[in-house]
Amino acid sequence: MSQPVGITITGSARLGDTPLFAPVTLPIAAGGWTCLLGASGVGKSTLLRLIAGLETGVDFTGTVTADDAQPLQGRVAFMAQNSLLLPWATVLDNVAIGARLRGERPDRARAEELLARVGLADQAHKKPGALSGGQHQRVALARTLMEDRPVVLLDEPFSALDAQTRAGMQDLAHDLLQGRTVLLVTHDPAEAARLADHLFILTPQALTPVPVPPSPAPRPVDDPETLTAQGQLFRQLRGAA
Hints:
By secondary structure, the chain is an alpha/beta fold.
């Protein structure tokens, strides 16, 4: 993996004649976790997709820049809420799918190593239909790591999981993505309070920075300061609705 890179996205977006979000400047710090919190429909995923260079369906006026002034193309990995696993391919082949799509020879030994790191070494030759929801997301995380990019974009990847599995996946992802520049889009105040090094709330009117608890992430789910931050975030979100 190359050196982590900081990113700044500045601009506004419209859906036809309707503003999606007002002019914003979102700084994403190199080598840490930036969490973007907000209600559904305010443009969180749009900002993430703009950074990823994916189609958004909106009119965006602004810029996306890296702090080393180099293009972001080829330096970004993306993990979505849906694991997007190919049902006819084995778990191992799903982890290595990126290389195949680029016409490259997959490094199967590395794919096996990553499956072991996410606790699925014994599932490598199964099909996704034999896995649980939490295991699906572990495969998706291994596939994201397989791409070995310095920037990782997470679009609510754990929101469909039960609370216990979600907390475990948050801990695992935070451990395995150490040193990378991570942007996590979420609508969950508890997730943001646990994981953020830097935290912003997006509304149609503004992007607001929010202090995070002083303890290092990932914070315990029952940590008093984290629970207090969670409650404050929830109140801010309700006030912005």
